[in-house]
Write a structure and sequence with these properties.
Chain lengths: 167, 291
C-alpha cells in the first residue's frame, strides 16, 4: 500500500471521527475509525507501514483529545504491528475473525492507554466500562462488515445476477 | 470478290433484324403492359412492378431513415430532457441545501436562544460553542469545542449548559479548544450541597458518573439533593448546578459514599456555554495548560 493511499485512509478516518463525533448521537455506534484505518493498512501485511500508520493515527487522536501526546500512538503502533503479524503469519480471515480481532484490539487499546495514563499521569485505571465494551462491539462489527464487503465476490455475483435476468 | 461478302452481309442482317425486332417487341409489350390497368384497379402493372421491386429497398431506406431520425430526435429529446433533468436536479439540490441550511439555522438559533436565555443565571458568559468531538477512553473524558483564544477563551475557562456544569478548557487554540469533562477520572470540582450547605469535592469516576467525597457521616444529605459548585477551587464559579444526589451509602472512615447524577446531558452535548475564567484572568495568559 503506497503512502498516498495510507494518507487518504487516515484522512478519511479522521473525517469520520469528526462526522460522528460532532453528532449528538455519537454514542449510538461509537466506532474507533482510526483503529480501523490502522487495521486496513495492517491487512496488507507491511510491518513498517502498519506501525507508522498506527502511530500516526494514535498521534492524531492524542493531539485532539489526550493531555499527553503519545499514549494512543503507542497503543495503536503496537496494535498495528500485531495485526500485521497476524495477517502475515497466521491464517487470518473471514468477517467474524476480523471483527473479533478488532473488538479485542479496541479493548487492548483502552487497556494500554489506561496503564500508560496510570503510570505517567497517576490516573486511576478505568477499564471495562459499558461504553468501552460497546465501542469494541461497534468497531468489531464495522470491521467485520468491511471485511465481508471486501472479500465478497462482487463480480461473480453481478454476473450471476445478469444471467438470472437473461433467463 | 464483292458478292460473297455482300451476300454474307445480306444474310446477317435478318438475324440482327430479328433480334432487334424481338427486342422492340419485348419493349412494346412491356410498354403496353405498363400502360395496361392492373388487376383490381391498383394502378398500372409497371407501377405495380416498380413498386413491388422497389418496395424492399424503399422500406429499408425508410426504416434506416426513420431509425436515424428517430434516434436523432430521441437523442435530442434525451439531451433536452437530460438537460432539463439536470437543471431540475440542481434546483432540487439547491432547495434541499437551502432547506437543510435553514433548518440548521433554526435549530442553532433555538439552541442559542435557550443558551442565552439561561445566560443571565450564569456567571459571565464569554460565548457559546459547538461540541466537535467527545472522546471517552480509559477514564479520559474530553471534548473538543469550537471556540478559542480568538474569542477570549483560555485555559481554565469553565464550560456549562443551562442544566449544569460540563467541565473546563484545558488547552486552547485560536479557534478550537480541548476541554476536560467533569466525568473524567481526573476531574474534580469544589461542591456544595444546596440544601444543607455542606462542602465537599465532586470527582468524575471515568465511567459516566460523579462521586461526592468528604461529606461526613453525620450529614443530613439525602437522595435528590442538588449539588452545585462551591466556588472554592479557584476554577469554577459558585452556584452552578452539578448534579443531584443519586445514592448515599456509608463509606470507609468518617465519610459517606455519595453518587451524584450529573444534571448536564453529557451523552448528547451539542453546544456549550463558555464562562469567563474564575477568578477572572487574561485569556492570553494561558493558551495551554497541563492536566
Amino acid at each position: 500500500m503506497n503512502l498516498g493511499r495510507i494518507a487518504l485512509i487516515l484522512a478519511g478516518a479522521a473525517g469520520l471521527e469528526f462526522l460522528f463525533g460532532s453528532s449528538p448521537y455519537r454514542a449510538a455506534w461509537p466506532v474507533d475509525w482510526l483503529l480501523l484505518a490502522t487495521a486496513i493498512v495492517a491487512r496488507s501485511g507491511g510491518f513498517g507501514r502498519s506501525v507508522l500508520t498506527g502511530a500516526a493515527a494514535g498521534f492524531l487522536e492524542d493531539a485532539l483529545t489526550e493531555s499527553l501526546l503519545g499514549l494512543n500512538a503507542f497503543a495503536k503502533a503496537v496494535i498495528g504491528y500485531l495485526l500485521a503479524f497476524f495477517s502475515v503469519r497466521v491464517m487470518f480471515g473471514g468477517a467474524l475473525a476480523v471483527g473479533g480481532a478488532l473488538a479485542l484490539c479496541s479493548l487492548a487499546n483502552d487497556a494500554i492507554v489506561a496503564i500508560l495514563r496510570s503510570l505517567l499521569l497517576d490516573s486511576p485505571i478505568v477499564l471495562g466500562t459499558p461504553y468501552a465494551l460497546w465501542r469494541a462491539i461497534a468497531t468489531g462489527a464495522t470491521a467485520g462488515a468491511l471485511e465481508a464487503a471486501w472479500s465478497f465476490p462482487w463480480r461473480e455475483w453481478r454476473e450471476r445476477r445478469r444471467l438470472r435476468r437473461l433467463r | 470478290m464483292r458478292f460473297p461478302s455482300a451476300r454474307a452481309e445480306i444474310t446477317s442482317r435478318p438475324r440482327r433484324g430479328g433480334a432487334l425486332l424481338a427486342s422492340v417487341l419485348v419493349l412494346c409489350v412491356l410498354a403496353l403492359s405498363a400502360q395496361a390497368p392492373a388487376r383490381g384497379h391498383r394502378g398500372s402493372v409497371l407501377q405495380s412492378w416498380i413498386l413491388t421491386v422497389s418496395a424492399p429497398v424503399v422500406r429499408a431506406v425508410a426504416s434506416v431513415s426513420r431509425a436515424v431520425s428517430g434516434a436523432s430526435s430521441s437523442a435530442a429529446e434525451a439531451w433536452t430532457s437530460r438537460d432539463e433533468n439536470s437543471r431540475l436536479r440542481a434546483r432540487l439540490a439547491k432547495s434541499d441545501e437551502e432547506l437543510l441550511r435553514l433548518r440548521a439555522e433554526v435549530r442553532q438559533l433555538r439552541d442559542e436562544r435557550s443558551l442565552t436565555a439561561a445566560a443571565p443565571f450564569l456567571p459571565v458568559v464569554v460565548g457559546s460553542a459547538p461540541v466537535l468531538l467527545i472522546e471517552r477512553r480509559a477514564g479520559l473524558q474530553s471534548a473538543l469545542v469550537g471556540i478559542g483564544t480568538s474569542a477570549g477563551v483560555g485555559a481554565g475557562s469553565p464550560l456549562a449548559v443551562p442544566e449544569g456544569l460540563v467541565g473546563r478548557v484545558i488547552t486552547s487554540g485560536r479557534t478550537m479548544s480541548r476541554a476536560q469533562l467533569l466525568l473524567d477520572a481526573s476531574a474534580a470540582v469544589g461542591a456544595r450541597i444546596a440544601r444543607t450547605g455542606e462542602l465537599g469535592i465532586v470527582r468524575g469516576d471515568g465511567r459516566g458518573a460523579l462521586l461526592l467525597n468528604h461529606i461526613p457521616t453525620t450529614s443530613r444529605v439525602r437522595a435528590g439533593d442538588l449539588i452545585e459548585s462551591a466556588g472554592i477551587d479557584g476554577i469554577f464559579p459558585r452556584g452552578i448546578p452539578i448534579g443531584r444526589v443519586g445514592a448515599v451509602s456509608p463509606g470507609s472512615n468518617l465519610f459517606l459514599d455519595i453518587r451524584v447524577v450529573p444534571t448536564a446531558p453529557f451523552a448528547r452535548l451539542t453546544d456549550v456555554l463558555v464562562l469567563a475564567a474564575f477568578p477572572a484572568r487574561d485569556p492570553a495568559e494561558g493558551s495551554s495548560a497541563g492536566r
